[in-house]
Amino acid sequence: MSKRIIHTDAAPAAIGPYSQAVRAGDFVFTAGQIGLDPATGQMVVGGVEAQTRQALRNLQAVLEAAGASLSQVVKTTVFLQDMNDFAAMNAVYAEFFAAEPPARSAVQAAALPKGALVEIEAVAYSPRA
C-alpha cells in the first residue's frame, strides 16, 4: 500500500511536525482542522459557529488536495472546548453533511490549539480511479 503526504495552501499550514493529511491506499486520514483562516493565519471571529464553518472549509480543502471530497468521509471526530457548544456546532456541521452523514464522535477537550473552540478530523474512503 502506498502512502502519500497531502499538503495544500488552501488550508492552514501544519503548526507542528505533522501533515495536513495522509493518503494510504484508498483512504485519506486528515489532521484536525480548526477555524484558522488560511489567508491570514488568524482564528475567524463569530464564535463556535464561525469556527466550525471555517474548520469544515479547511477540511474540505485538504480532502480535495488528496483527490477526495466531503461526500466520501466515513468518520469524523469533533473536539469541542465546551460541550455546551454542541448544538451550535451540530447545526453548522449539518450544512456540510446534509445527506448520508458519516459516523461521528464528539468529545470535550480541556484545550485546543490556538485557543480554538472546535477541531474536526476526518477519514475518507476515496478509491483511486
Tell me briefly what this model is:
With 129 residues, this protein is α+β, with helices and mostly antiparallel strands. Helix content is 23%, strand content 26%.
Q: How would the blueprint of this fold be written?
A:
Elements lengths: L2 E4 L14 E4 L2 E4 L16 H19 L7 E8 L5 H11 L6 E6 L9 E8 L4
Parallel strand pairs: 4-5
Antiparallel strand pairs: 1-2, 2-3, 3-6, 4-6
Helix pairs in contact: 1-2
Tell me what the structure shows.
With 129 residues, this protein is an alpha+beta fold. It has one domain (3-125): 2-Layer Sandwich (60s Ribosomal Protein L30, Chain: A), CATH 3.30.1330.40. Helix content is 23%, strand content 26%. It is built from 2 helices and 6 strands; from the N terminus they run βββαβαββ. It has a 6-stranded mixed β-sheet, covered by helices on one side. It starts with a strand and ends with a strand. The model has no long low-confidence stretch (mean pLDDT 96).
Q: Quick one: CATH superfamily?
A: RutC-like
Mean residue pLDDT: 96
What is the CATH architecture descriptor?
2-Layer Sandwich
Distance between the termini: 15 Å
Structural class: alpha+beta
Biggest pleated-sheet summary: 6 strands, mixed
Q: What is the CATH first-level class name?
A: Alpha Beta
Q: Gyration radius, to the nearest Å?
A: 14 Å
Strand order of the largest sheet: 1-2-3-6-4-5
